[in-house]
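Render DYW domain-containing protein in 3D.
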Amino acid sequence: MSPHLHGQQPLNFAQIINLLRLSATTQNPSLGRSLHAHIIKTGLHNSSRMPNTTLIGMYDRCALLPEARQVFDEMSHRDAVSWASMLTAYTHSGHADLALTLFASVSAAGGIELDDFMYATLARACGSVAALRQGKQVHANFVTSDWSHDDVAKSALVDMYARCGCVDDARGVFDSMSSWSYVARTAMINGYSRNGRFSDAICLFQRFSDRNVVSWTALISGFVQNGDGCGAFSLFNEMRSYGVAIDPFLLSCVVGGSANMAALELGRQFHSLVVKCGFETSMVVCNSLIDMYAKCSNIIAASKVFDMLPQRDVVSWTTMIVGLAQHGRPEDAFDLFRAMVDAGMKPNQVTFVGLLYACSHAGLVEEGRRIFSSMSEDHGIKPVLQHYTCMLDLLGRAGLLDEAEEVVRSMPMEPDEASWASLLSACLNHGATKMGTKIADHLLNLDPEDPSTYILLSNAYAASGMWDQMSKVRRLMAARDVKKQPGYSWVELGKGSHVFYAGDVSHPMKEEILALLGRWHVEMKKRGYVPDTSFVLHDLEQQEKEQQLYLHSERLAIAYGFIKAAPGTAIRIVKNLRICGDCHTVIKLICSIICREIIVRDATRFHHFKNGKCSCGDFW
């Protein structure tokens, strides 16, 4: 669409404003750019009536952030509205960190008086990136300003504190408000439930009689985000009993809850409800369905939902790419990425995390190097710590330990605990005990916080036979109350699931489970199986080590699944930790013995075992 269609006269100011708003609403960047060109051509850009803020808003809605910033930079005079428009554009596009950098420019520029909208915008930006220190600065400025009684800005501050985990500070601002909007209530309720303060969340929720779907969504989504899927589903059923209308955002939330729990049957029921409610073309719902099916080990169903989407955004493409990568289908992930670019969709940082993950878990070193370079060279995306960690993981898994260490020491940002832990894990996996000991010593000096890091350190010293150092790590764990997460697996059977812990044979069907494992063990030995006790990093006798392997949680879950599942159906297992090498060998043998597909979702990826082989190609 052009401003000069069919020989019309040049557009007036009001027409330009209306068309810019239309371009933003319909997300039509070609119309917006054409209007911008018309403004410059007709000299309106030199006028005091130049619609800069509307232009910035249009480019924001069309996901053209560089163009929005160019308009902002070229403005001869910037008032509070123009500053707020640019800050909002950054926040909307997921670049709240840039919004905060711009705020520093606001302060440095001087003479810009912040208004209620600016305070609210800055608080939202701080909340988006959990920038508590900057958020407190915004709050301090706000309480001494002429807008200190504005409830809209206070609502944004409530949300900021809640997102930063400071729910008591959020409640303090909430209680100071003269009236509570749905937005403020939603932020406070969601903040409580997201931070595990469920009783406080429910108490505040019940305080208001005019509850609507927004309030219910705030409460339910908080339960989901805090990992309490069962509580979320119970609330969802209670909400339905009150006859509250369901919207796409709530459905997206509960679908996400079933994804986190790997509850495939429950996810299918929600999918049926999606169709019944007529939301099967909703992008936000379908994106959640794609993620749910991928996380519940049904990548084929995820692909079907993706293929049926009438429109796709960057989340749709990225979710499908990540799902394919996790299921050991790197070539399909690369093909889909090329289709995404050909469709004119701009990838984001998460897209490249998925692509690098696909390379890492398939040993595609050269492809990973190429993708890492193309991020900045072809797509203008600056690598962040997560991308460097992916490269580190790729090189470490491939055994290129010296190059991996060079990545850690040369990355442009300070390597975090996870980076060093990844390198140490690679050393352990490749038997580089000398290098591993050096990395372990360095990591121990960093005073790590993650419990899994202490387990890794203990295993590293055990692998080197350094029992004194291992004991030192164990004493540190005890002093700091760091507890090892027990290994467990669960198998989903219809509407229920059954959990098994490593070494725990207290299940009511333990006799049948152990008898079946015994028969499989005899058959595996006939096929040449020899237990690999190197995965038991304890100073134990050989027989004790073999017994520990024999009772790993995934083996117990598979045996129970085989007894209870319908004949011929796939056995689906979820394990909270990374599957060990010996169990990986065992499951390949079991699937060939029982002639059934076994799908295991461990802490890092999916393993599809079929006909004695695994989709990971023994590289995970």
